[in-house]
């Protein structure tokens, strides 16, 4: 099982460093916005910062304890643990003094040790008077930080704390928040799927009966969404082909993932076939209707028309079609929701299904009236090309997604 501590892709651990500037009051709003996004936020103020906004405010807003000293919580090795576990560090406001300390690599307080211990992206929002910002010492420190990959937002040009105005004003919390989102959404160039084009279908197709009715299924699209997020986090360029997915699922898909819609099995087949032309990995997690209605009514059926007789015709097997048209080097993954029978286990059924369709990998999960659908958790076994189980995972859909992607990476290696 994948033991990643990140869940659902969009939840991240963010350290917000606050240094001693009056703009610290605006950072309260930034922390509020990050917590509202569902992130785990740890505020690390400097001693000076606490003169502007006190620890109780940060604790209440971040919902996490606040310390400034490297001597607190020593048993947890907090002085490095915060930095090591962070997905992103934001310093807002970053004063001229704190920028100088960062450039020099000073580690005299918890923020300093956190910054030296982290490998996460660091974003700073400078705030100071114009003269201090323009001073060659500050500009040299900024150049040093930039050269190390530190990102900057602002400072903005505008009214400063006194009567003066000019560049030096900390960017607004909403702008910093937007930049945080952008940074968290960037594909990781060091991920094990970096540069690969991954196309993932999800949800359930809907086959029309008449203009208002359809034959559908219980697939929510959650597993497919988790796969899309996990693949994107691991560096892939992801296209998410959404058949009908549960409300709210599409809101969890960040902008860096391209979303394409498909209603019926025929539409899904067209989209997947077109996208397959330049994809490296194809994952069919959508639940595709095996049959469509041949005699779709062009008007809404009414009871007075009598009980309808639906004539069903078989849909093309999209997965098998993708395998037939496979381009060199392409990895193709199917999903199968199976129920055991007296004669066969779900694994045995999965093995037969993988062979029949020709997919490289088939992720099999057991379903029943009570299990497998509309739930946050999932259990799957991934069957590989030699008919053995190459991975099993039980846990959140994100954990299952990562296990399936591990199998893809393993196969491609
Ligand atoms: N699939 C597909 N096209 C279809 C039906 C299924 O691409 N017309 C894909 C699904 O997206 C999934 C895999 O095939 O990745 C297995 O789906 P499943 O519904 O279990 O396959 P069926 O062939 O319909 O098998 P069964 O007879 O057990 O329903």
Q: Quick recap of the structure?
A:
By secondary structure, the chain is α/β, with parallel strands linked by helices.
Relevant CATH superfamily of the largest domain:
CoaB-like
CATH fold title of the largest domain: Rossmann fold
The biggest beta sheet reads: 8 strands, mixed
Given the C-alpha coordinates, what overall shape results? elongated
* Unique bound compounds: cytidine-5'-triphosphate
CATH top level of the largest domain?
A: Alpha Beta
Mind explaining what this structure looks like?
The protein is 33% helix and 23% strand. The chain has an eight-stranded mixed sheet with strand order 12-11-8-13-16-17-18-19, sandwiched between helices. Strands 2-1-3-4-5 form a five-stranded parallel sheet, with helices on both faces. It has a two-stranded antiparallel ribbon with strand order 6-7. The chain contains 13 helices and 19 strands. Mean pLDDT is 91; it is low at 1-9. It folds into two domains: 11-185, Flavin prenyltransferase-like (Rossmann fold), CATH 3.40.50.1950; 197-412, Rossmann fold. The protein is α/β, with parallel strands linked by helices. Helix 1 packs parallel to helix 2 (55-62), helix 1 (24-36) packs across helix 8 and helix 9 packs across helix 13 (397-412). It binds cytidine-5'-triphosphate.
What keywords describe this structure?
elongated, Rossmann fold, 8-stranded mixed sheet, 5-stranded parallel sheet, 2 domains, single chain
């Amino acid at each position: 099982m994948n033991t990643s501590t990140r869940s659902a892709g969009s939840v991240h651990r963010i350290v917000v460093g606050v240094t001693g500037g009056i703009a610290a009051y605006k950072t309260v709003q930034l922390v509020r916005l990050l917590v509202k996004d569902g992130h785990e936020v740890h505020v690390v103020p400097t001693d000076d910062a606490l003169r502007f906004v006190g620890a109780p405010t940060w604790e209440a807003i971040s919902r996490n304890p606040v310390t400034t000293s490297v001597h607190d919580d020593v048993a947890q090795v907090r002085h490095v643990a915060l930095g090591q576990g962070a997905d992103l560090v934001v310093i807002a406001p970053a004063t001229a003094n704190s920028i100088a300390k960062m450039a020099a690599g000073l580690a005299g307080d918890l923020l300093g040790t956190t910054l030296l211990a982290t490998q996460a992206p660091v974003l700073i929002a400078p705030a100071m008077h114009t003269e201090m910002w323009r001073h060659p010492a500050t500009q040299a420190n900024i150049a040093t930080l930039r050269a190390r990959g530190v990102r900057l937002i602002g400072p903005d040009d505008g009214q400063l704390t006194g009567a003066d105005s000019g560049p030096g004003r900390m960017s607004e919390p909403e702008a910093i928040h937007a930049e945080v989102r952008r940074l968290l959404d960037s594909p990781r160039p060091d991920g094990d799927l970096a540069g690969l084009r991954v196309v993932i279908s999800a949800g359930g197709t809907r086959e029309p009966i008449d203009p208002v009715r359809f034959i559908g299924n219980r697939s929510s699209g959650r597993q497919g969404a988790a796969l899309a997020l996990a693949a994107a986090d691991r560096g892939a360029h992801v296209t998410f082909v959404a058949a009908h997915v549960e409300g709210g699922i599409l809101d969890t898909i960040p902008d860096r993932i391209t979303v394409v819609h498909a209603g019926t099995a025929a539409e899904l087949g067209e989209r997947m076939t077109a996208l397959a032309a330049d994809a490296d990995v194809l994952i069919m997690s959508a639940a595709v209707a095996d049959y469509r209605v041949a005699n779709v009514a062009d008007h809404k059926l009414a009871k007075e028309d009598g009980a309808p007789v639906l004539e069903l015709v078989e849909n093309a097997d999209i997965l098998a079609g993708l395998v037939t048209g496979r381009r060199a080097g392409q990895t193709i993954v199917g999903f199968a929701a199976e129920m055991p029978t007296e004669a066969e286990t779900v694994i045995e059924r999965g093995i037969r299904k993988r062979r029949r369709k020709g997919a490289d990998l088939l992720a099999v999960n057991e379903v029943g009236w009570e299990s497998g659908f509309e739930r946050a958790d999932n259990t799957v076994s991934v069957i590989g090309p030699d008919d053995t189980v190459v991975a099993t995972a039980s846990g959140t859909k994100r954990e299952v997604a990562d296990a399936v992607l591990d199998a893809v990476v393993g196969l491609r290696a």
